[in-house]
Design brief:
The chain is mostly helical. The protein has helices at 2-31, 33-56, 66-103, 106-117, 124-148, 157-181, 188-209, 213-221, 224-251, 254-261, 264-267, 269-275, 282-300. It is 83% helix and 0% strand.
Length: 301
């Protein structure tokens, strides 16, 4: 029963990230992706501080042991800073479609590494469910990109692909570190707080090195409507999304959670079709059903 609850939380996480991705994409077109990546965590910080206070009675996670503190800060650094930098570089070199197809390797990396590091074992049917879900998501992303993005990225492929693989690996490691950090019964809200803090520290340092720290704030503050929109995205993604991820990781294996969280592109299809009026081909629909079949296997077995 706990595993099923964890999987439901992972699906809810995917929905949060899908909604947040739409917000970040819209705001990023006006102020730039680096600004969005940096500022969203500053906006998320007050939310997670208030949530931590109401749940634990402390404004700061003061009762965290040294090992959990290190693991979660490193998880945030990898997940919010290193992974995003690799992914954004890959987006520039090989485009959205190829990058997101490669990022579907995250559940595979998570499953293999958690087997070695956390000694998590899965049944053959659970592994099959992860592979089918990942394959379905990959199919949807590939078909959508083939239709919408006729990008000339071949010359950058040799450089861009390793960046995308590194991003997928960093995301997998971040999830595994988070699960390892909760072995000492650390509340997920405290882990989420530390993960956001670690990511924010890395992104703040990166923006200082780029000499864009204050420029990022200026860009977003000059447009109040975008600030409000990005604030909503920060609450849905880094706050709710990460918190739900940690609760899911506490209850279910890392590989399964990673596979379900990566279903965001599938969950976005109804929004694309009914709200944005985008074309959805029968191949994309088939890929969606393949992904849902994989999800069904994970829930049944």
């Amino acid at each position: 029963m706990e595993a099923i609850l964890g999987q439901l939380l992972a699906i809810t996480t995917a929905a949060c990230f899908a909604a947040a991705a739409n917000v970040w994409s819209h705001v990023g077109k006006h102020v730039g992706s680096n600004t969005v990546t940096h500022i969203r965590l500053w906006l998320a910080l007050p939310f997670i501080m208030l949530a931590h206070f109401f749940i634990t009675g402390n404004i700061l996670p003061v009762h965290v042991d040294a090992s959990s503190l290190f693991l979660f800060l490193l998880s945030g650094l990898l997940g919010f800073t290193v992974a995003d930098l690799f992914i954004f570089r890959s987006l520039l070199l090989i485009g959205v479609r190829q990058t997101h197809v490669i990022l579907t390797l995250t559940p595979i990396f998570s499953t293999v590494i958690s087997w070695f590091v956390l000694k998590e074992t899965l049944t053959y049917l659970q592994i099959l469910g992860i592979l089918i879900t990942t394959g379905g998501v990959m199919w949807v992303i590939y078909e959508e990109g083939r239709i919408r993005n006729r990008e000339k990225m071949e010359k950058n492929k040799n450089v861009g692909v390793p960046f995308a693989i590194a991003g997928a690996l960093a995301q997998a490691l971040a999830n595994i570190l988070s699960k390892a950090g909760m072995f000492n019964d650390l509340p997920p809200i405290s882990g989420s707080y530390l993960r956001i803090t670690g990511g924010l520290a890395g992104l703040a340092l990166f923006s200082l090195l780029r000499k864009s720290f204050f420029t990022d704030f200026k860009r977003i503050c000059e447009q109040p409507k975008l600030t409000a929109l990005l604030t909503a995205g920060a609450f849905i993604g880094p706050v709710m999304g990460v918190l739900l991820t940690l609760y899911a990781l506490r209850l279910a294996p890392v590989g399964i959670v990673s596979a379900l969280v990566r279903t965001s592109p599938v969950l976005l299809l109804p929004f694309d079709y009914f709200i944005l009026k985008k074309k959805v081909t029968y191949k994309v629909v088939i890929g969606t059903f393949v992904a849902l079949a994989g999800v069904s296997i994970l829930f049944i077995y």
